[in-house]
Write a structure and sequence with these properties.
InterPro entries: CHAP_dom, Papain-like_cys_pep_sf
Helix content: 25-40%
Number of strands: 6
Protein name: Peptidase C51 domain-containing protein
CATH class: Alpha Beta
Strand order of the largest sheet: 1-6-2-3-4-5
Radius of gyration: 15 Å
Pfam family, one: CHAP
Keywords: Signal
CATH architecture: Alpha-Beta Complex
Order of helices and strands: HHHHHHEEEEEE
CATH superfamily: endopeptidase domain like (from Nostoc punctiforme)
Largest sheet: 6 strands, antiparallel
Shape: globular
CATH topology: endopeptidase fold (from Nostoc punctiforme)
Structural class: alpha+beta
Number of helices: 6
Strand content: 15-25%
Length: about 180
Amino acid sequence: MNLTRLTSAALAACACALLMASPATAATTTSTATATPHAVPGSMAAAFGTVLPQSASPATIGDIYPAKWRNIPQDSVVDDWNMYNRECVSWAAFNIDRHGESASNYGDAKYWDDNARQHGYQVDNNPTPGAIAQTDRGTYGHVAIVDSASGNTVTVEDYNWDGTGHYLRHNVNKGDFRYIHFYG
């Protein structure tokens, strides 16, 4: 997603969501896998189609994204990896860091596969739990964390799939992504 510019629509959506949710509701909303019935234009959900929530598996990470980045408006701060908060790249970089690896300064998601290759990481078409699903599709691309794979269906966990800056666990088509293996 765009790491350099905020739109008034994005700011309005974030402000509206914060104003309408109590702190308890906001925590529930960001920590559960909910899909929006209508995707924000330009979002990955609009590009790939909206999705339904998926039940958890043993590999599910859950929304463990730090509150200092999760509980403030999207794109309002830069995280420890030089990514804007509540974007797919921030979520992925945070999870990679938890495993002792780094995707710091990897930029927009569409560049992650090339940057990973340059740093010696394996990039292929094989989704495995913990791998980063990456696509160049859309203006800025998208990254997510692979939870599980079965046939042509890959269950991923990500932020900002629907353009609202929230966590979501959902299915994607295996062939729509490349898979970066930072660890494991």
